[in-house]
Design goal:
Elements: E1 7-9, E2 12-14, H1 16-33, H2 39-56, H3 61-93, E3 96-99, E4 109-113, E5 116-122, E6 134-141, E7 144-149, H4 150-157
Parallel strand pairs: 5-7
Antiparallel strand pairs: 1-2, 3-4, 3-6, 4-5, 6-7
Helix pairs in contact: 1-2, 2-3
Length: 158
C-alpha cells in the first residue's frame, strides 16, 4: 500500500488532509454546476470526513479511499431514503384539485393537482364533475386520483 505523508504538486506540498479537502470542495462545487441528486455532495462530505480522519490518524492511501467509498455509499443511501420519505408526505399533504375536463361516473378525466395534470375519476356516489370545478382528493389508486366536488364534501360534512 502507498503511505501518504506529503504530496508535492509543482513545488507545493499538500498533506493528505489538504488533498481530501480539495477533493471534497471540488465535488460539492460540481453539485452546484451539474445537479446529480446529491450524489456529488454526499461524496464531497465524505471526503471532508476522511480529511478529518487523515488529520487525526495518518494511514495508507488505500485505507483512506476505502473509508471514503464506504462513507459515500452510506450517505447516498441515507439521502435517498430521506428524500423518498419527504416526497411521499408531500404528495399526500394536499387534498385540493381542479377539474381540467368534465367527468362522468366511471369515466376518467384530468385534474390539476399540485401543479401537474393527473388522471382522475369521480368518487362513488358522484353524478358528474364539470370542468374548472374545485375538487377534493379522497383517494388514490396508483396514478389515478379519486375526486369529489368541494360542495358535495361540505354537504356530507353537515
Amino acid at each position: 500500500m502507498i503511505w501518504l505523508s506529503q504530496i508535492t504538486i509543482d513545488g507545493i506540498e499538500i498533506s493528505p488532509s489538504g488533498l481530501w479537502m480539495i477533493v471534497g470542495t471540488t465535488l460539492c462545487l460540481i453539485e452546484l454546476l451539474v445537479p446529480t441528486a446529491f450524489t456529488a455532495v454526499c461524496m464531497g462530505v465524505s471526503a471532508f470526513l476522511v480529511s478529518l480522519i487523515a488529520l487525526m490518524i495518518p494511514s495508507w492511501l488505500g485505507v483512506q479511499i476505502a473509508i471514503w467509498m464506504l462513507l459515500s455509499c452510506g450517505l447516498i443511501m441515507l439521502g435517498y431514503r430521506i428524500n423518498q420519505q419527504r416526497s411521499s408526505r408531500q404528495i399526500q399533504a394536499s387534498t385540493e384539485a381542479e377539474a381540467l375536463t368534465a367527468m362522468m361516473p366511471n369515466q376518467p378525466g384530468r385534474v390539476l393537482y399540485e401543479g401537474a395534470s393527473w388522471r382522475a375519476r369521480c368518487a362513488d356516489g358522484v353524478e358528474s364533475i364539470v370542468a374548472q370545478e374545485k375538487l377534493h382528493v379522497v383517494g388514490r389508486e396508483g396514478n389515478l386520483l379519486i375526486v369529489m366536488p368541494m360542495h358535495l364534501l361540505e354537504i356530507r360534512a353537515r
